[in-house]
């Protein structure tokens, strides 16, 4: 994970190195000393970049190294800003001299603290042997696990408390001493002599096992102990006849037994002992002591827990192993659907001969609990699919032999050493090949680990199945046999999160007043948990015992959420999660917000310098790769079905940051000195400084506070809510990004001031600023501008000076007007035009098809746009005006366009439009809106027209009832959006062979209100719409949809919205859609529709989820 941990610093250093080299090559008029200094700086940064390339996770855990990396990053920022500045050369000479001195000092600091050793692999201070190496890796891992369990089970204080549990079966407890037997005897003796426990057991005995082991002598000694203790308890003398009676009772049916076995050393001895003490299902107990952790765990069986009873030193503890009540421990709430899906994955693996499945998700989401539930359930119901079971946690640093040894412990009933097996890896391979095994490998952290495991353990073909659990999607995909064998465990939705919280409170305190509470602050607190069961349960356990004070406790926790969770002893069980968070935190973008569009995020990364061009890929492609990486880590999450895996770059329209991750990010802002935000009522302080400023909607807009901030290094400014003119300052000379999306109060005069003072802007977004009607001509002075987003504003015409912006790559512009086609509105639906609630909670964004109640109109652009050859995205351009044809002719020269949107296409300009896009090599996305009363103009295309061969997304608005014939020539099309006045049956049938994954149909009227996805030929149904995974239908008339048994067999999500009267919506054949997972319906209904759809889905094998509004 080294590229993730220091990724941000590496990116900035790359930028500084590139800028320095460019300045050396391009500035012929540089003074010799300045050029020499830049050469020196470039060389030093090259060495620093090499260091960051080998920096690993261990380094990042070192505070000294972390500080040095942060200093390198800040210095790189300053070098880049200096070299890229537009200042006259003589003004930067002094600054470069100062930067050189700082670079020298940072380099010396590295040598002073020995951060880079000769080998370049580890800091010198970390090359000493790690504590605990002497006691063995397995034992050390067991101690770590035991201490973690002790923090979780704080109510279990000693051995006595475990013995008071009514188990029903014969209970077994192992006491294990690490390193020596010191302390073991006293702990066991305390429980053995406990005055409350003694009367509970009719037979009590303590036997020290001798070597060699003699079973008969062992049993006689145990019976004698039983009798002696019985006499002492009753105050009677020894009687031979009574001794014989107790011997018979111990061997046959007798009462409760409490037997302590000291110094057990082999599993053979244990197996013999168990024959003398059979399970009578009467809550008797056997307690053994041993100095071998393998013996301790094997005596308990598959589902053990290990807990530390007493710690004498970092390497010496007394731990206890006991049976884990998996039914209670893994009683999953609101996870029935996931359990069914996981079962289906295993069934599918068996059916198709798959051997490796992967389960992935963010830390704390419940991956292991979900798999463990399935794993133990199969063991306890004696599932005939598998003969052997094995669960192994991957230890780090990774060691294949240790992993094999641990796995072998589950397969066999005795330690590896006792069996004489010399190569545990080879033995595991043999068992997996010869037997039907279910093996779980939990905690895999890299593809390199799997590349060592797979050839060593896996044999193909075999009847065994391996389930790999990891936190990264890329690792999961690498390990699984195919993409269909990868299962993503997601966080709980809001409703499910509250249900889990309530169930945990009820379990801990049935009379808790929290159960009936609808407190808003409590709801916000649960939302902050990010749907992570581990965090939700911890919060529930903290609040459940509280009665009178629970509201105050909840309020305090909500106010200092992350601080309390990290530092309070009550949340010690979350330390492992925070370890993961700390490791991955530095991969997060610096301005994480609750919900953001993918394109907005990528374009900002480019402008801020985090995503740059290389000799192999563009900055845009690199940004998409970064985005995919954050998806793989579950740091950024897609909204349900907001993308489909058929797109190689996984194009997501909307995404959101996990709420828990965001809270953690905010808590680290000051440490990283990168991001700071203004919210609520802020006090005057000198500590507000950083590269990125976020102004929240909740901030009281205090000008005194704002003007006290140091803006000298500010690179981005993001404003939520109301805009104020004093937000722009002449001290923001380095500002690259100005993001005012949906901000209110932005005026024309503000724009003129922005352009005058912020000459280095690369990203300007006024999206949703409806009070902006015009862009000033001075826009042409922003020569560094790369992204301009003025969608959903009142701008209708672009200034003529825009053609001066030769670096502009991305123009999104449009006005909006009410659509002629009404879309149903529910009182419970979110208003898409408003800002979403509190910035600390996860935001639920509705599907664009469900809330699209405004249609986009293009803007007029000036002639000369052909000069803007860097353009990758352009739209929406209105060509329904005098110069429209000229604009279309100029578009022919924009050969690098990837995305194009146009409105006003008519019979008058259709030929010029076709010429502009004909055979376009790079065009991937095309949006076309036809002029009113020109619905058939697309059929009048020139005979030499060639559709864009790489088109993946096609949106066509304003059709009548026919589709252009050339639509079937779009062989790479993945997404198709159609808006039609009417959709006849033959029109829908003409689309049956398209290989699209997303199909959206917006229809004003259906003939007879029927839509039939069932294509017949010679009396038989044809397989059709085979690749469609998402089907989205919106309609103004009545809607009666029928699905045939051969259509849409890969459909996963069905969405439908209708604004007709109740009772006019109907679905038939839903149970025939074999891959269906979710159905979303939005319409007026009287309950009959819901009942009918639920009935169809209940007959579906996969039990799809229904959401109806």
From TrEMBL:
Residues 12-84 form the Disease resistance N-terminal domain. The keyword Nucleotide-binding applies. Coiled coil: none annotated. InterPro entries: Disease_R_plants, LRR_dom_sf, LRR_R13L4/SHOC2-like, NB-ARC, P-loop_NTPase, RX-like_CC, Rx_N. Residues 815-841 are annotated as: Disordered. Residues 155-321, 353-509 form the NB-ARC domain. Residues 714-816, 858-1094 form the Disease resistance R13L4/SHOC-2-like LRR domain. GO terms for biological process: defense response to other organism. GO terms for molecular function: ADP binding. SUPFAM superfamilies: L domain-like, P-loop containing nucleoside triphosphate hydrolases. It comes from the Eukaryota. Keywords: Coiled coil, Leucine-rich repeat, Nucleotide-binding, Plant defense, Repeat. Pfam families: LRR_14, NB-ARC, Rx_N. Belongs to the disease resistance NB-LRR family. This is Disease resistance protein RPM1. It comes from Digitaria exilis.
